[in-house]
Amino acid sequence: MTQAEIIAALKAFIALPDASDAEFEAMALQVFAYQFRNNEPYKRFCLQRGRTPLSVRRWRDIPAVPITAFKDLTLSCSPPEAAERVFMTSGTTQGIRGRSYHPTLDVWKRSMLVNFRARFMQGGERIRMGILFPDEAELPNSSLATYLSLAKRECGTADSQAFIDAAGLDLDGLLSALEQAETSGEPYALLGASYSFVPVLDALAESGRSFVLPEGSRILDTGGFKGQSRELGPDEFYDGLSAAFGVPRASCINMYGMTELSSQLYDDGNAVCPSVKSGPHWIRSRVVDPLTGADLPEGQRGVIVHHDLAHFNCVAAILTEDAGEIVPGGFRLLGRVDGEASKGCSVAVAEFLAAARG
Amino acid sequence: MVEHAGHLPGLNREALRWREVSHSAWGENATIALPELDEAQAATLCAHVRDNARARLKRMETARIVDAIDAAIARLLDREHPLRRKAEHLLPIVTGYDRETVRLGLTGYLKTFRKPQLLRFLAEDFGNPGVLDGFQPTPKGGSLHAHGPELLLHVWAGNVPALSLWSLICGLLVKAGSIGKLASAEPLTAGWFASLLAEIDPKIGECLAITWWKGGEAAAEPVFLRAADTIMAYGGNETLTSLRAKLPITTRFLPHGHKIGFGVIARETLDSRKAPVLARLAAHDVVRYEQQGCYSPQMLFVERGGKVSPAEFARYVAQELAALAARHPRRALSSGEATSIAAWRGAQETRAMDGAAELLGEASDNWSVVHVEAPEALSPTGLNRTLKLVAVESLDDVAALVAPYRSFLQTAGIAASPERLFRLSEQLGAIGVSRIAPLGRMTAPEAGWHHDGRFSLLDLVTFTEIEQSAEAAAEGFAPYVD
Q1: Looking at the DSSP assignment, which residues form a beta bridge with residue B152?
Q2: Distance between CA A73 and CA A77 in Å, rounded?
Q3: pLDDT in tens, B439-482
Q4: Angle at B385 (CA atoms; ends B382, B390), nearest 5 degrees
Q5: From CA B320, how far away is CA B287, in angstroms rounded?
Q6: Contact B207/B57 with Cβ under 8 angstroms?
Q7: Residue of A35, A291, A295 to mutate, interface with B, max B Cβ within 10 Å
Q8: Which residue from B159, B335, B380 is facing A349, i.e. has the nearest CB?
Q9: Does A340 score more than 80 pLDDT?
């Protein structure tokens, strides 16, 4: 398949209302064959594991690449210098950032919008939005900035606004927008990085203010705290959001996305944490034993693997560093996977790196 | 059945609180009860050990202590002795190592503490071990007497079975009152050994105690840390740093941090006759104690230009690891340990994607070998039978690849001709390697070795010196003075 063909096939696949196991499998194998042929490092990785498009018959057998590989290698089926957009991770482990190359953002955008409409817009055409994140003009390499800009452009009303830019948080602007929303009776949506909400919550708590946003209002947070703000436990966080904005926890939706993917996963609110997350029909998630890579049965804790067919240009199957368990309707995210220091007296990798960094 | 850990002279067992911990491995379970002392009990224990050491141990001839240790070790070497049987039964369950590994490991290790070896220990550090028993003349004139600490605290880490005996015996040899803090991962051997000593020589038994507390949390901890005049501690840098911060400035602190071992293989050893043997020895060093030891190899530097290439040698090693896996199965891993291996394998696979590395062994095998052709600096692996082989043009390149990690270095296993052994040892010694061993012996240091390049006994003592002039001056006051 050529790039144009795979893009066309994916767009058609995303446009389907749903996909059966067999349909997903067929598309996954096509994407795998495409990536195996055009992505040299990935091909080596697959050969190392003895997997080729000829030997792989099930989507679950498609080799998943550890996400750290996006830091060390150029994983792209097309010349990286010709990419329309390069998304980079914010994580700066040893100053290296993971990269995803997009020869076109068409598939990425389509994946984002179809899914966003289904999971966050819940059938509504547009909603007034307040965005707590810089826009894509400011952060062109941020997939989240692009995501939120697209959400605002395609699903926000004309008076939607972003409240964070190079100058920082425009708290006054946000408060007056929230006041207006409160009195207008029209639902309002507040979207941003999880850590962006923390200073807002702190400021509201300090001044003793809170809002009761109209029914149908909702909140979307994503990405955790990443050391950008103090860490809040999930219950503390969603209780805080609910109390500050008058939005029930069931309408506080968490989006789980990654720079190393082209699709996002959502929960259906955070009335109960940890919530159950799931993706659209073009992404499937597994939970595996970190050592063997074998699928774990439902309810057993392991490492999450995503197969995101929309990520056609890089690698569709990635092994995350997130712990999780499969449950009915999706998976539960159980935080980061952490290695354990050795019990003996030999140096383990984590300790060595920590000491080497000083 | 509950096995009570520790040895607590002067305290009433029934009055103590015990924390029960369950262990299971190889289809068997064991419950170990660990003592949890309160502040008053800790203070009583410290006073008991210190007072007894002062009154008894300090006045004992070293030879008597050596005899008692020798007798205790003889019983532990006796495979019919009830304690030895208990050790062979319980240690595999508690540490997870397979029975054969424990049995062979114990025997090999205990052998280094018999009388001739103990005398060698003493001779190694003291030109004249008599200095431990009284004043001895010195070459420069005057006399010296070495004193061990009154109260030596051992903080053990690690699940290498019986590792605690090493420092415990060193303490006894210099007549230190000793209190040992057991590691949760191996809470048994030290207490057994202490009880055995107490049975053999009750006076010595009053001078040492073995206990446990949860590091950084227990009420008793500050009592122990204040009471000891010397502390020998094992653990990761973070643990050691926080421990040191809690000590009075006058306390002598002897830390043994985590280390990384590596092997060096010269081209002259790589022919079709010798290479398979070397591969077996290297695999043995990797398998024994699952690379948990400070002396365990995590990386091998293999020189190009032999009849067997580094890539072929990597295959030999992989084959030997596979063979050993059948005979000595890897212990069950915690999810954290599995994750460490997976993360390391993942990183190696990533490099293999670039064609820079070759990963041998399936993820489902219980060993992994990776081989790289480009020179690479020393780095730890995922442990539990994960090994990296790095091809180098010349072994003279190795020192530079290892040098940045000076503070982590200890043992290098070397396979090379005598001339090159010495040349390499010079190079590696200069960058901080303190022990050179042959492959196959990396995890079994010989009696009297200088752990981390230091003196095992000498570091523990202080000397009292009678200057020659004092002796001469005293003559003036003798009753026989003319």
Answers
A1: B178, B230
A2: 12
A3: 999 999 988 889 999 998 999 999 999 999 999 999 999 999 88
A4: 75
A5: 10
A6: yes
A7: A291
A8: B380
A9: no
Residues B320/B367, Cβ–Cβ less than 8 Å: no
Q: Is B261's Cβ below 8 Å from some Cβ in A?
A: yes
Alpha carbon distance A339, A262 (integer Å)? 28
- Residue pair A348/B334 in contact by the 8 Å Cβ criterion: no
Half-sphere exposure of B61 (CA within 13 A, CB side): 3
Q: Structure pTM?
A: 0.85
Q: Cβ contacts (< 8 Å) between B236 and chain A: which residues?
A: 341, 351
How far is A141 from A135, CA to CA, in rounded Å? 11
CA distances from B23 to A109, B39, B67, B371 (A): 53, 28, 35, 36
Question: What does the pLDDT look like over A226-285, one tens digit per residue?
Answer: 778 888 999 999 999 999 999 999 999 999 999 999 999 999 999 999 999 999 999 999
**Is residue A158 classed as helix, strand or coil in its secondary structure?**
coil
Could you report the predicted ipTM of this complex, rounded to two decimals? Answer: 0.78
Consecutive H or E run containing A44: helix A40-48
DSSP state of B306: S
By the 10 Å C-beta count (0-12 exposed, 13-18 middle, 19+ buried), B87 is classed as buried
Mean pLDDT of B40-57: 97
- DSSP track, B420-437: HHHHHHHHHHHTT--EEE
Q: Of how many residues is chain A composed?
A: 358
Three-state SS string across B133-174, please?
CCCEECCCCCEEEEECCCEEEEECCCCCCCCHHHHHHHHHHC
Tell me the three state secondary structure of residue B244.
helix
pLDDT of residue A92: 54
Q: If you average pLDDT over residues B312-333, what whole number do you get?
A: 94
Task: Note the pLDDT of residue A182.
Answer: 95
Residue A294 with chain B: CB contacts under 8 Å:
364
Judge whether B113 and B44 are in contact, CB under 8 Å: no
Q: Does A274 sit behind a cis peptide bond, omega within 30 degrees of 0 on the bond before it?
A: yes
Q: Determine whether the interchain pair B339/A42 forms a contact, defined as Cβ–Cβ distance below 8 Å.
A: no
d(CA A26, CA A59): 8
Angle, vertex CA B80, rays to CA B74 and CA B84, nearest 5: 65
Residue of B nearest to A356 (CA): B405
CB contacts, 8 Å: B343 with chain A: 66, 290, 321, 339, 349
CA distances from A139 to A86, A90, A100 (A): 11, 11, 15
Structure tokens belonging to residue B199: 């049975």
A-chain residues within 8 Å CB-CB of B237? 351, 355
User: For A86-112, what is the HEC assignment?
Assistant: EEECCCCHHHCCCEEEECCCHHHHHHH
Cross-strand partners of A285: A306
Non-local (6+) Cβ contacts of A301 within 8 A are A287, A323, A324, A325, A334, B335
Pairing of strands A161-162, A65-66: unpaired
Taking alpha carbons only, the member of A121, A115, A112, A120 closest to residue A85 is A112
